[in-house]
Amino acid sequence: MRVRLTASRLQRKATAMGLARTFETAANPAQKPARDPLSALLALGRPLVMGILNVTPDSFSDGGKFIDPAVAIAHAGTMAEQGADILDVGAESTRPYGGMKPVSADEEMARLAAVLPAVVKLGVPVSIDTIKANVAAWALDQGASIVNDVWGLQRDPAMAKLIAQRGVSVIVMANRETADPAIDIIAKVSEFFTRSLEITERAGIARDKIVLDPGIGFGKTPEQSIACIARLAEFKHFGLPLLVGASRKRFINSVTPSDPDERIGGSIASHLDAVANGAAIVRAHDVAETVQALRVAAAIEAAR
Predict the structure, then answer these.
(1) Is residue 236 in some structural domain?
(2) Is 209 in the active site?
């Protein structure tokens, strides 16, 4: 069974997932990721797929499914085989719809310790999904090369300085404590980005190390999440790559009632529209289906 594959076997099976892969090419031997691989990936000129690995007991979509390190490592290997350009590993559920249960940095690192080093060895760039600077520092020491901060550097004052010192890329996500249907969500997300970018400038983080994520589902009503995708192009004025993580989010249920694992169609539709509106990266649970959809869309567009 796949869950019994060892990390070393998975690494050998994932050797096709080097940074030079494009939608049309066959497998190439894996290479050790560059310290800052994101710029190289973005230079490929196609949308990138970030595969999600939650090693948590309470994630909204797959809570507990990958808490066993062997299962988590096997799933990471599967996503690499399926074409993930980046593997995003998190050990504290951010639960976009409330009910988040904070964990200590020690607990977060304990969950990661048995998984992250093996995932890094697969040869696919790894991002660490955390809001804690000490967890991010530990993960970077283990070989992660991107920090994904769902509070956009506005929670832990040490995070921006760490990223600047390490010279790694950062994903700055716009977040809110609660949803407010009365606000102009596009304006509020833009204001959030402006504050975060002021932090990055003060810390000395290079502009070419920053990706912006509007935070689909985080402190937003379903209608506001949909608006952020529909009006994604309005964030282009920041001049930075955009990431959209619509995978299995609750707004899909507001359009067509469905449980999280029944939202693949809605996730793909959202990500295709996001790419059409300027997204450079999409963050997905269902990597194979997302990669296939993007490749087919690219082929159709090329034939126009």
Answers:
(1) yes
(2) no
